[in-house]
Amino acid sequence: MSLLRIEDVSMRFGGLTAVRDVSVAIPKGGLCGLIGPNGAGKTTLFNIVSGFQRPSGGRILFEDRDITALEPHRRAELGLVRTFQGARVFPRLTIREGLQIARHLSDGNATRRPVIDDVMAEFGFAKYADEPAGSLPSGVMRELGIAMAISTGARMLLLDEPAAGLSAEEVTNLQRVIRHVHAAGVTVWVIEHNLNFLMGLVERCIVLDAGAVIADGEPRAITGDPRVIEAYLGDDAHAFG
Amino acid sequence: MSVKSETAVMINEAASETAPGENRNRIVQLVFALGWLAFAVLLATPILADSRYLLHVGTMIALHGALAVSLNLLLGYAGQFAISHGAFYGLGAYASALLVTSAGLPFWLAMPLAMLIAAIVAAIIGYPALRYTGGVHLALLTFAFGELARLIAANWDGLTGGPMGLRVLYFPEPVLGFAFSKASGLYALAAAMLLVTMAIVLLVKRSRFGRGLVAIREDEVLASFLGINVLRYKLAAYVLSSAMAAMIGTVYAPIMTFISPELLNVHETISLIGVLILGGIGTFSGPLIGTLIFYGLPEFLRIASFYRLVILGVLIILVVLLVPKGIAGVIRQRLEMYRRGYPLFSWRKLS
Fold first, then answer.
1. Any chain A CB within 8 A of the CB of B230?
2. Which residue ranges traverse the bilayer (chain B) (predicted)?
């Protein structure tokens, strides 16, 4: 059964079509990637799914319920939570305070118990607990973003370029955190510009180019797909050109 | 050095670190306890001293303290910049005075009714104004509402007495044999307002609602993506804060025995914002410290009220430049640093 279904979603900004008739289904318990060159429409698609933007056409279903017109906080209530590019945390609040706020939805609500109850311990935040989140190393900040999303009692996470700008060691830690969260029962869909980050992580990859899905399958198969190579090489050629 | 002895050294270090740490914790707790003790003593002084002058000054400080505390909920915790607090204070005073004198209602019924009216008006203004992030809409709309309310009070002669104001010739009915017709009774009433607003803000601060407000203050977008209904929370904070202002206004009327449209002047709100900045916006004790300095200090230094605004202006500029977190903010930060093992006083740059 698919947890999230995107049906014929389009997004036009004036004359520009950022997302074109995209249909994707993410199964419950999946760990999927969303890749594509710059400007392919990845973040726009995530914005539509998370409620940041209303699509020009098509609809979004979460657990077979039409959520196209729901506001972001209602989607979070249903268990669909996103993180932002870079790391969006409450920089002036401590980790403890941020996580306490994130438990807003799940506290005292048995049906929304977070899959990881003690994120402070399991994510190894204890030693930073009373530091302002803005002073954390960027790798820890990204992990905090994920931990906060989990604490709301999320059933599905949309991660927007979680690894961008991290060191190799931080990337490894982050992959471990994502795997951990997935193993605990959360469906994960990750946007990533960098193919290598996804290769060892996801079981399935959706490739977006110029607003349309051009490939969808196992990571290994994707890298050999001529249309994907074309999209990435075309992008690179342009960058060099 | 063997592994075993290394571990022993580490354990020893850890032990010697915890001992002073616990001491420091206790000292910090003691400082807080002393602060609240001083507050209790100050609160009791006008009654114990039984001086008409102290009772009068104490009443005014308690009322302004209550206003500052209730405004801090909206400005300090929710981070919403509304400038209609004085208008709701005046609204509460006028609404209750009219309900008592014209409609003949008992004061204790007029008070909740005036709060209800204020809450409804706040919801009507707040809904369109709070839909936007950034606060310009809220500041402008609430300012416009305040001016509108003042003009209505000044010009609707038949209802409000116009610019001449309204004489208030009633006192709240006695409660459980405790009368409010003498200066000490009215002071007790004002002090009760202060304690009630403090209790409400403390409850909110410790609740899920309060944590949601802080999240909205820090980042509205992130708050909404964590499942917080931002508009509803902001609206609730605005309505609650405005209803508290109206409640304080209802006791102002019999205390002053006279209300005029000047009560709704925007200066009142601006002064309160100054008080919050001075004391420490978004801290629990900040509004109290700010009120004490702004309304208390000039009184005891016998400085004419004309100079009060000048002194406040200078103080606020100094505070903004040197200690942007306000007095309570600095004290809290210093104590927190001390608790973690830094010296209590040093010339290291703050913030």
1. yes
2. 27-47, 53-75, 87-107, 113-130, 137-156, 176-204, 235-259, 271-297, 309-331
Interface test with B, best of A53, A104, A127, A156 (most B CBs within 10 A): A104
Q: Using the structure block, give the residue that is written with the tokens 């006192």.
A: B171
Q: What is the pLDDT of residues B256-287, one digit of tens each?
A: 988 989 888 888 898 899 899 999 999 999 99
Q: How far is residue B284's CA from residue B280's CA, in Å, rounded to a whole number? A: 8
Domain count across chain A? 1
Q: Flag whether residue B181 sits within 8 Å of chain A, measured between CB atoms.
A: no
Q: Would you call B228 and A73 a contact, using CB atoms and an 8 Å cutoff?
A: yes
CA distance linking residue A38 with residue A21, whole number of Å: 19
Contact residues for A143 (Cβ-Cβ < 8 A; gap 6+) = A123, A125, A173, A174, A177
Q: What share of chain A is helix, strand, coil (3-state, %, to 5)?
A: 40, 25, 35
Domain enclosing residue A226, as ranges? 2-240
- Write out the DSSP string of B227-296: T--HHHHHHHHHHHHHHHHHHHHHHHHHHHSEE-GGGG-HHHHHHHHHHHHHH-TTSSSHHHHHHIIIII
The C-alpha of B336 sits at a distance from chain A's nearest C-alpha, in angstroms, of 11
Exposed/middle/buried for B239, CB within 10 Å: 0-12, 13-18, 19+? buried
Structure confidence at residue B17 as a pLDDT band (50, 70, 90): very low
Query: CATH number of the domain that A210 lies in?
Result: 3.40.50.300
Distance from CA of B232 to the nearest CA of A (A): 11
| Burial class of residue B291, CB neighbours in 10 A (0-12, 13-18, 19+) | buried
pLDDT at position A232 over 80: no
Among B313, B318, B277, which residue's Cα sits nearest to residue B298?
B313
Whether residue A73 and residue B224 make contact (CB cut-off 8 A), yes or no, is yes
Closest residue, chain B, to A147 (C-alpha) = B226
- Any idea what DSSP says for residue A24? E
The partner residues of B258 in beta bridges, in order of sequence, read B167
Residues of B in contact with A97 (CB under 8 A): 211, 214
DSSP-assigned letter for residue B84: -
A193 burial class (0-12, 13-18, 19+ CB within 10 angstroms)? middle
CB A60 within 8 A of CB A66: yes
Both tokens of A81, joined, read 């939570």
Give how far A204 is from chain B: nearest CA, Å: 26
A:1-40 residues touching chain B, CB 8 A cutoff: none
B347 pLDDT band (50/70/90 cuts)? low
Rounded Cα distance, A145 and A98, in Å: 9
Domain B23-339 CATH (choose: 3.30.420, 1.10.150, 1.10.3470, 2.60.40) = 1.10.3470
Under a CB-based contact definition with an 8 Å cutoff, are residues B85 and B277 in contact?
A: no
B218 touches chain A (CB under 8 A): yes
B76, B289 contact by CB (below 8 A) = no
In this predicted model, what pLDDT tens digit does every residue of A181-192 receive, in sequence order? Answer: 999 999 999 998
Taking CA atoms, B78 is separated from A168, B28, B223, B230, B239, in Å, by 39, 27, 12, 10, 12
